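To illustrate the input format used throughout this study, we show a single complete record. The first block contains the structure-token representation of the backbone; no residue identities are included at this stage. The design step must infer an amino acid for every position from geometry alone.
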């Protein structure tokens, strides 16, 4: 079954003609004054991952974004400085996910939001919303490993959302909101897996027994989201929304993780990161 919601200004109208009418979640009902009236189609099986054969066809044309980060004024498109490293993280609606990183984490060169983990090449937001691309909303993080390590990034990652919710995050439902870590190096993957195990134990110790559903993969292409999504929560006229549903449980420090000796020796802990709790959305300065 299909459902259609027509959005324009402050109005939301749902209609049905031999269809089941389903209003999309109010969390994504409108983009303040940034977007014109739009039509969004959703399928009734958005909570189920689409197969490669079922996925929507892609495009050879990449989405174009402003090369300058709206807040940091750095370059948010490649090539990046050679001393930087890149990681891709998904914690639900990417508006809030991105702001946590560039507002609260030191050593960040640039961030950008986009889509990853699916099958459709160069997808649009409208396509991703159907659940028929297989992509999840993610944040590409470009960081200086001298100032902040990948292990440091795991603290805001795990603490800023609930990684046990499967294909949803808080009020936002669908495979596009699933938790994910897409690594660009083997060292990142090892650290990601160790942090997942450590956080899983912390959850259980605090009575949160649901298993972590975060997917951890390497070599996953990142596709930029439309320019109006980039650093959205800092742009004029934005809707102050963040759908994250953090558990309120802290990630144990890397010194307690089960890491190979050679990796453990290279892992650093930035006190500015580990002295903070990331259990909540970031609004304001």
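Output of the design step:
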């Amino acid at each position: 079954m299909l459902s259609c919601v027509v959005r324009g200004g402050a109005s939301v109208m749902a209609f049905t003609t031999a269809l089941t009418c389903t209003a999309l979640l109010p969390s994504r009902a409108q983009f303040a004054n940034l977007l014109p009236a739009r039509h969004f189609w959703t399928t009734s099986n958005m909570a189920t991952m689409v197969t490669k054969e079922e996925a929507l066809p892609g495009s050879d044309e990449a989405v174009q974004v402003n090369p300058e980060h709206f807040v940091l004024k750095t370059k948010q498109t490649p090539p990046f400085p050679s001393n930087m490293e890149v990681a891709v993280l998904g914690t639900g609606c990417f508006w809030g996910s991105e702001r946590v990183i560039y507002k609260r984490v030191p050593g960040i060169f640039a961030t950008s939001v986009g889509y990853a983990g699916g099958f459709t090449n160069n997808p649009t937001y409208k396509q991703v919303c159907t659940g028929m691309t297989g992509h999840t909303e993610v944040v590409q993080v470009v960081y200086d490993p001298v100032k902040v390590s990948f292990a440091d990034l795991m603290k805001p990652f795990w603490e800023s959302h609930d990684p046990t919710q499967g294909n949803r995050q808080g009020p936002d439902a669908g495979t596009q909101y699933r938790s994910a870590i897409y690594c660009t190096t083997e060292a990142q993957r090892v650290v990601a897996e160790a942090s997942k195990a450590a956080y899983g134990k912390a959850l259980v110790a605090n009575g949160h027994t649901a298993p972590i559903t975060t997917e951890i993969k390497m070599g996953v292409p990142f596709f930029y989201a439309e320019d109006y999504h980039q650093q959205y929560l800092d742009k004029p006229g934005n809707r102050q929304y963040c759908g994250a549903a953090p558990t309120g449980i802290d990630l144990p420090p890397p010194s307690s993780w089960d890491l190979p000796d050679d990796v453990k020796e290279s892992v650093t802990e930035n006190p500015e990161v580990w002295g903070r709790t990331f259990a909540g959305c970031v609004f304001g300065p």
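Structural context for interpreting the output: The helical segments are 94-104, 125-129, 150-159, 186-205, 261-266, 271-274. The mean pLDDT is 86.
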